[in-house]
Write a structure and sequence with these properties.
The relative contact order is 0.20. The protein has a single domain, classed as Aminohydrolase, N-terminal nucleophile (Ntn) domain (Glutamine Phosphoribosylpyrophosphate, subunit 1, domain 1), CATH 3.60.20. A five-stranded antiparallel beta sheet has the order 6-7-8-9-10. The longest helix has 17 residues. It is an alpha+beta fold and 138 residues long. GO terms for molecular function: metal ion binding; threonine-type endopeptidase activity. This is ATP-dependent protease subunit HslV.
């Protein structure tokens, strides 16, 4: 059976203001199954925003785990991301999840990869041609 996949999440930061958006498209192979999926969520008392690309069911699992880490660490984005990454790498069930999270608050923007890596783009730049832009495409 083919994997359901998301396609694009985009985060733009300017100073203390950040926005994350997604295309809303869920595909199965080359077929668009849904065009209005909600790929971006507000977390931890609306202080953190997170978006996903990749397997939809996998992403919901990661949202739940990430939000639990945010609660545990009182909204500390970096600490919660690192702890999620540790879980992701050591938990057998999580290791098989195929998703990527883009997360941000007023101070930081991070990408948490399917390998359990936490990446804070230098100067908020992840695309060499566009300033202040993070693009995650799967």
């Amino acid at each position: 059976m083919e994997q359901f996949r998301g396609t694009t999440i985009l985060s733009v930061r300017r100073g203390n203001t950040v926005v994350i958006g997604g295309d809303g498209q869920v595909s199965m192979g080359n077929t668009v199954m849904k065009g209005n999926a909600r790929k971006v969520r507000r977390l931890y008392k609306d202080q953190v925003i997170a978006g996903f690309a990749g397997g939809t069911a996998d992403a919901f699992t990661l949202f739940e785990r990430f939000e639990a880490q945010l609660e545990k660490h009182q909204g500390n984005l970096v600490r919660a991301a690192v702890e999620l990454a540790k879980d992701w790498r050591t938990d057998r069930a999580l290791r098989r999840l195929e998703a990527l999270l883009a997360v941000a608050d007023k101070t930081a923007s991070l990408v948490i990869t399917g390998n359990g890596d936490v990446i804070e783009p230098e100067k908020g730049i992840a695309n060499e041609k566009t300033s202040n832009l993070i693009a995650a495409i799967i």
